[in-house]
């Protein structure tokens, strides 16, 4: 039993994982499937119009892994490679469905001339010009149980679902999946600047939705 556990633990090492996949190790593929299937499906869903289309993209990706693992050069992590395949396939399908835009059209979503926070929330004049006139609700004053409540999670999920697709992808990988900026840039073929702007705008909108939710509860 300990040997099985040791082998499974080794799959976290990409070199061991890739070697096992190339040998046709079913346990290695099962480990990979369990670890990443849900994340791949969430990412695919941001590009395509239906859950069925997202499932199709992910299934195509797993077939691409099986048939393409011998050609994988390990210049990125397996995780990044998988998500890049999904992003590329889903993007193509999404464009055909008119669900998403190529990343070359990021300017439409980054909205460089639009502030991430409503300008009316800042003082326009006086010694404190530019300071908050209506500051954000301090989340550290909210009980932890309230922040983790099902209703609050539903507000967050709805806010993320309402984001422009590229913002949705970035915040999903950064804040829901816990990826670092470099991995997100590599998986989604983004520059660091675009990743940072998309994440900032996404977080601002989600925070705004939560502020409205807590304010409604207080009133």
Give the overall shape: elongated
CATH topology group of the largest domain: Arc Repressor Mutant, subunit A
Radius of gyration: 21 Å
At the first level of CATH, the class of the largest domain is Mainly Alpha
How much helix is in the residues?
55-70%
Number of discrete domains: 2
Number of helices: 11
Distance separating the two termini: 57 Å
CATH architecture of the largest domain: Orthogonal Bundle
Number-wise, the strands total 0
Mean pLDDT, to the nearest integer, reads: 79
Verbal overview:
The structure is a single chain. The chain is mostly helical and 219 residues long. It has two domains: 2-96, Rna Polymerase Sigma Factor, Chain: A (Orthogonal Bundle); 103-218, Arc Repressor Mutant, subunit A. Helices cover 65% and strands 0% of the residues. It is built from eleven helices and no strands. The chain has helices at residues 2-10, 14-22, 26-45, 51-68, 78-96, 107-110, 144-147, 150-161, 165-176, 181-188, 192-218. α3 crosses α5, α8 (150-161) packs across α11 and α9 crosses α11. The chain is elongated. Mean pLDDT is 79; it is low at 1-9 and 99-113.
């Amino acid at each position: 039993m300990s040997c099985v556990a040791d082998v499974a633990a080794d799959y976290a090492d990409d070199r061991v994982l890739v070697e096992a996949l190339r040998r046709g190790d079913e346990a290695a593929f099962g480990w990979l499937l369990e670890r990443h299937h849900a994340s791949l499906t969430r990412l695919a869903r941001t590009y395509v119009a239906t859950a069925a289309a997202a499932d199709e993209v992910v299934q195509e990706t797993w077939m691409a892994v099986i048939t393409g693992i011998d050609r994988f050069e390990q210049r990125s992590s397996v995780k990044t490679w998988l998500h890049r395949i999904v992003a590329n396939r889903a993007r193509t399908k999404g464009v055909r469905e008119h669900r998403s835009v190529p990343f070359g059209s990021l300017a439409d979503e980054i909205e460089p001339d639009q502030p991430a926070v409503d300008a009316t929330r800042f003082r326009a004049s006086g010694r404190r010009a530019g300071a908050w006139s209506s500051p954000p609700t301090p989340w550290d004053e909210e009980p932890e149980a309230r922040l983790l409540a099902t209703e609050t999670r539903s507000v967050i999920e709805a806010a993320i679902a309402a984001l422009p697709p590229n913002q949705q992808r970035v915040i999903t990988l950064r804040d829901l999946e816990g990826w670092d900026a470099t991995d997100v840039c590599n998986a989604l073929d983004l520059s660091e600047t675009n990743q940072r702007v998309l994440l900032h705008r996404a977080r601002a909108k989600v925070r705004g939705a939560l502020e409205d939710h807590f304010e409604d509860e207080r009133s």
